[in-house]
Design goal:
The chain has about 140 residues and is α+β, with helices and mostly antiparallel strands. It is built from five helices and five strands. The mean pLDDT is about 95.
Amino acid sequence: MIDKDLFKKRFIIKGGDYTAAGEVSVEIKNILKDIGFDPVVIRRLAIASYEAEMNLIMYGVEGELQLTVNPDTIHLVIADTGPGIEDIDRAMQEGYSTATDEMREMGFGAGMGLPNIRKNSDEFKITSDIDKGTRLEITIHCHS
């Protein structure tokens, strides 16, 4: 059976725009609540989308988050233009961070973003090209 999309939306996110930080993930959380998804699924997706949104704001120049919701899965694709990630394996380790002092002063950069995304995803894929950008694909299965 082919899943029918319940909802699709594309969000544009600007790197360095800390004043808008978290707005996209809050909107996604509200969309899923309105559709009627299980609170556990909403929480997992809210964590994953927030961490991805913050990584894009902190490290990307610009990018987008694409949300696709259907009855059985929720899929996010986050793609940015930016410096890329030199060592993905290292970046996936809890506590590893390349955050600047300025980012840390704002309360970010604990090195938990990518590990939290992986932990809250059923499927997770990351690709990155130096001086081009990074792409995350996140899927959460909605077992009713």
